[in-house]
């Protein structure tokens, strides 16, 4: 699906470019860390709250009505060597005194289309930050830190969020460099239940792949219209590496490590009209039991959850491939579900559907901030 819908992709790119050039509200540099920051070796002692260790100044991209800001910075990844732009937003709760010692959950939002040189989720057209803030106020979402990196290395092709031999290490960029940047600047959890993904199309694929590949780092992904397997043309000549970046192969390894033989861990599927303010029609999902480190499950080892957002007009062969993948991977430590909506392969509709129950579903499987007593 990464290479389809050229008109839609162009529209999304143009809207993001417009936000960069004409819709931004640039102001003074912004830092989100206190003057006294933790030393790396002190940040993990006696707590899984990681305090900022190396804060930087960010440039304001746009200001929201509630006084929060979408900000941006350029990052040269120490591990990947790739230089790209990253946008971020923290909810209003982040600056409140009662939360000054608390970590906040991180939602990495990954775009579809070319995903370079911008990430369209920072723009006011999607209102992702405004809607998360509203949902948090209504008790329908955790107050997430939203992080929006570029997804690919250029406008020519896509990299499947992977370290393809001989190419820029876009897998390491997403799995290591961007999260390290977040940890340096914001209060975050060491627990993987403090980290999740929302992605559209190719971004959905990468988010799904990341939770299966690194369950010790990330725990939940909401994937809008993802492919079921890697299909970048850059994999030609590298079949082994391509297989090792396949969700099916990664899930198989995770299931084996958990010792799970069978037993589906699937949430009820749901359906929703994109843009509707009502909750999706579905059978009620059982609420996860929670402990000191978040939801717990019947299996040992990491537990991850993936929700697929699929339009009723998505290509049938791609829906079938994703359904087959879901049947194969839904067992042991892997929970899945599908939310359907009326429409096709559309980043705007994936975003609308996110707020029809999936963000609340994700929030129930992640850790929120804890106010001081």
Features:
single chain, disordered N terminus, alpha/beta, 373 residues, twelve-stranded mixed β-sheet, 9 helices
Structure description:
- This protein has nine helices and 16 strands.
- By secondary structure, the protein is α/β, with parallel strands linked by helices.
- The strands form three sheets. Strands 2, 3, 4, 5, 6, 8, 9, 10, 11, 12, 15 and 16 form a twelve-stranded mixed β-sheet that branches.
- Helix 5 runs parallel beside helix 7.
- Residues 3-11, 13-24, 42-46 and 274-299 have low confidence and may be disordered.
Short characterization:
The protein is an alpha/beta fold.
N/C terminus separation: 48 Å
Provide the helix percentage. 25-40%
Overall radius of gyration: 19 Å
Number of strands: 16
Overall body shape: globular
Uncertain regions spanning at least 5 consecutive residues: 3-11, 13-24, 42-46, 274-299
The number of helical elements comes to 9
* Structural class estimated from helices and strands: alpha/beta
Largest sheet: 12 strands, mixed
Relative strand content? 15-25%
Overall residue-averaged pLDDT value: 86
Looking at how many chains there are and whether they match, the oligomeric state comes to single chain
User: Which series of helices and strands comes N to C?
Assistant: HHEEEEEHEHEEHEHHEEEEEEHEH
């Amino acid at each position: 699906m990464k290479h389809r819908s050229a008109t839609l992709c162009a529209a999304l790119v143009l809207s993001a470019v417009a936000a960069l050039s004409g819709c931004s509200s640039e102001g003074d540099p912004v830092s989100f860390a206190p003057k006294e920051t933790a030393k790396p070796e002190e940040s993990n002692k006696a707590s899984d709250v990681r305090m900022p260790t190396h804060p930087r100044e960010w440039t304001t991209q746009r200001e929201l009505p509630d006084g929060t800001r979408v900000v941006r910075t350029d990052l040269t990844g120490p591990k990947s060597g790739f230089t790209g732009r990253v946008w971020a937003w923290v909810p209003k709760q982040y600056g409140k005194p009662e939360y000054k010692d608390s970590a906040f959950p991180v939602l990495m939002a990954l775009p579809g289309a070319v995903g370079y040189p911008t990430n369209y989720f920072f723009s006011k057209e999607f209102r992702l930050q405004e809607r998360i803030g509203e949902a948090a106020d209504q008790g329908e979402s955790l107050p997430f830190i939203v992080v929006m990196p570029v997804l690919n290395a250029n406008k020519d092709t896509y990299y499947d969020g992977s370290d393809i031999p001989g190419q820029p290490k876009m897998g390491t960029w997403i799995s290591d460099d961007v999260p390290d940047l977040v940890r340096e600047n914001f209060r975050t959890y060491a627990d993987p239940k403090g980290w999740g993904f929302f992605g559209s199309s190719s971004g959905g694929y990468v988010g799904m792949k990341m939770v299966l590949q690194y369950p010790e780092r990330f725990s939940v992904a909401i994937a809008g219209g993802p492919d079921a397997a890697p299909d970048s043309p850059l994999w030609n000549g590298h079949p082994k590496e391509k297989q090792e970046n396949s969700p099916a192969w990664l899930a198989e390894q995770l299931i084996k490590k958990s010792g799970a033989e069978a037993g589906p861990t699937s949430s009820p599927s749901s359906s929703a009209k994109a843009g509707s303010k009502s909750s999706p029609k579905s059978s009620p999902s059982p609420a996860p039991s929670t402990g000191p480190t978040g939801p717990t499950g019947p299996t040992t080892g990491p537990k991850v959850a993936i929700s697929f957002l699929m339009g009723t007009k998505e290509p049938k062969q791609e829906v079938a491939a994703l359904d087959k993948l879901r049947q194969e991977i839904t067992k042991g430590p892997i929970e899945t579900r599908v939310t359907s909506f009326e429409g096709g392969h559309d980043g705007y509709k994936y975003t609308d559907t996110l707020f029809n129950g999936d963000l609340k579903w994700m929030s129930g499987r992640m850790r929120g901030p804890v106010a001081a007593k």
